[in-house]
């Protein structure tokens, strides 16, 4: 795909689009299929690059994958799981963070696993220390090698008791995917309880796992000897839905997001309403619109579920440049998720970033040298600019900014957006956006 988009902004986005399954669930459910002795079927799968990457990784490990892209269905047959060649896996280095989640399933199936250097968005250090600590506690041996990390399980993995220092989504998934087939009972305190994790638990339970979730972030798993394949329809992508909602707000538009679901978006919807956006929920989706008049500034803090998601922050910040007064946004999940605002400032936004924890309770980054709070003063008209997409969500925010700004912007590096936004150009066309590719 060509990487440069000319966007002629300044017009409200209006129309009807569809979101399918959540990227951050689908990729994990695909990995879970490795644990089954029989094939799995996953539905509502979006055609995005992260799905293609995980598919490639599964195929390297002998999983047969058949896709019906239009229907959004994946058939995953793990009957012939095998060790992949290090060089082949290494070719995937840098393209995704998902390989780390292959460890538990591969250790159960094959007794060993190899993980290349991990990619993902550049939004902080994004270490994997929690993951490796968890795997070691189950009894895996972890060796760092030049191209990546080699793991082996000399004996069957053993259930264990773990307390996470922070409710990490990936580490919770790592634990689930490893504990379900480990010997005995595993107890995780301080677990992440994002809806995508709950849907992964649904999948694992369908496969034969025994998992209970307490109200206090404690997850308890009784290991079983054998898991079967599953049939499951993925929950909707609440990040994509919120991204389009923010685009509607920033451009003064009206977007019906078919497939968007209310229960996973309660916190976003409250915030959307406080900023001055309106929405209508029906059985098939949610209509998000700007009712006219001024948008209102807000004070916002990102957090783990049920808080305001970090991934909702970047698209919403673009809309906040159009709100009246001073908005304060405190990012508490990633230390470095405000890099994208430089481009907005270049387009005329008034945004100042701070190292202090502003407007909320102190977070892990307060005593360290990270610009993780932002003050946005609005409303400011945005003007067209030449901008470079920094990461997936920051990139979508740049796209919203270009659609909000009067004149023609050049947005470079748009192929990054393909990682997590299905057919976003077709959707832009459906919403009446004016753009062309170089
Ligand atoms: N962390 C550690 N050590 C670890 C793992 C995480 O210190 O071993 C820290 C991270 O550095 C971060 C915090 O814990 O400060 C939270 O990270 P988490 O593990 O929860 O994030 P993740 O599993 O790597 C997933 C999503 C992200 C989303 C976060 C938070 C996937 C593939 N990615 O990442 O999605 O922002 O959870 O909800 O599921 C995106 O979709 O654009 C995206 C970045």
From TrEMBL:
InterPro entries, alphabetized: Enolpyruvate_Tfrase_dom, Enolpyruvate_Tfrase_sf, MurA_subfamily, RNA3'P_cycl/enolpyr_Trfase_a/b, UDP_GlcNAc_COvinyl_MurA
Major location (coarse): cytoplasm
Ranges for domain Enolpyruvate transferase: 7-428
Binding site for phosphoenolpyruvate: 23-24
Catalytic activity of the protein: phosphoenolpyruvate + UDP-N-acetyl-alpha-D-glucosamine = UDP-N-acetyl-3-O-(1-carboxyvinyl)-alpha-D-glucosamine + phosphate
Record GO terms (molecular function): UDP-N-acetylglucosamine 1-carboxyvinyltransferase activity
Keyword Ion transport: no
Pfam families found in the cross-reference section: EPSP_synthase (PF00275)
Residue numbers bearing the 2-(S-cysteinyl)pyruvic acid O-phosphothioketal modification: 121
Residues the record lists as binding UDP-N-acetyl-alpha-D-glucosamine: 97, 311, 333
First-level EC class: transferase
Annotated active site: 121
Record's subcellular location: Cytoplasm
An example Gene Ontology CC term for this record: cytoplasm
Keyword field contains Cell wall biogenesis/degradation: yes
One GO BP annotation of this record: cell wall organization
Protein name: UDP-N-acetylglucosamine 1-carboxyvinyltransferase
């Amino acid at each position: 795909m060509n990487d440069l988009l000319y966007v002629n902004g300044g017009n409200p986005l209006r129309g009807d689009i569809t979101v399918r399954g959540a990227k951050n669930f689908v990729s994990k459910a695909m990995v879970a299929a490795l644990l089954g002795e029989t094939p799995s079927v996953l539905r509502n799968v979006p055609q995005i690059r992260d799905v293609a990457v995980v598919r490639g990784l599964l195929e390297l490990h002998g999983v047969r994958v058949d896709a019906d892209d239009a229907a959004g269905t994946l058939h995953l047959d793990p009957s012939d799981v095998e060790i992949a060649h290090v060089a082949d896996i290494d070719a995937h280095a840098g393209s995704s963070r998902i390989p780390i989640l292959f460890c538990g399933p591969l250790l159960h199936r094959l007794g060993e696993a190899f993980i290349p250097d991990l990619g993902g968005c550049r939004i902080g250090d994004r270490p994997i220390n929690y993951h490796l600590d968890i795997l070691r506690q189950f009894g895996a041996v972890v060796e760092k090698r030049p191209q990546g990390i080699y793991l082996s399980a000399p004996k069957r993995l053993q259930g264990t008791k773990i307390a996470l220092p922070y409710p990490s989504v990936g580490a919770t998934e790592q634990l689930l995917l490893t504990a379900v087939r480990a010997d005995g009972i595993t107890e995780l305190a301080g677990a992440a309880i994002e809806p995508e994790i709950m849907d992964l638990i649904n999948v694992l339970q369908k496969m034969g796992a025994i998992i209970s979730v307490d109200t206090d972030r404690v997850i308890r798993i009784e290991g079983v000897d054998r898991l079967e394949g599953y049939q499951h329809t993925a929950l909707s992508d609440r990040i994509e839905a919120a991204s389009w909602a923010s685009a509607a707000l920033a451009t003064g538009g009206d977007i019906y997001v078919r497939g968007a679901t209310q229960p996973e978006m309660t916190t976003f919807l409250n915030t959307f309403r406080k900023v001055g956006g309106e929405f209508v929920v029906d059985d098939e989706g949610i209509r998000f619109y700007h009712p006219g008049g001024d948008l209102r500034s807000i004070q916002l803090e990102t957090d783990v579920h049920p808080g305001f998601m970090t991934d909702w922050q970047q698209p919403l910040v673009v809309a906040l440049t159009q709100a009246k007064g001073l908005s304060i946004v405190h990012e508490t999940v990633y230390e470095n998720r405000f890099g994208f605002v430089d481009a907005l400032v270049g387009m005329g936004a008034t945004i100042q970033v701070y190292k202090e924890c502003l407007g909320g309770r102190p977070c892990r980054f307060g005593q360290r040298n990270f610009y993780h709070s932002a003050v946005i003063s609005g409303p400011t008209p945005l003007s067209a600019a030449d901008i470079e997409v920094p990461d997936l969500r920051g990139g979508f925010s740049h796209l919203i900014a270009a659609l909000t700004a009067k004149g023609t912007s050049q947005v470079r590096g748009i192929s990054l957006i393909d990682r997590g936004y299905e057919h976003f150009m077709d959707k832009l066309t459906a919403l009446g956006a004016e753009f062309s590719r170089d």
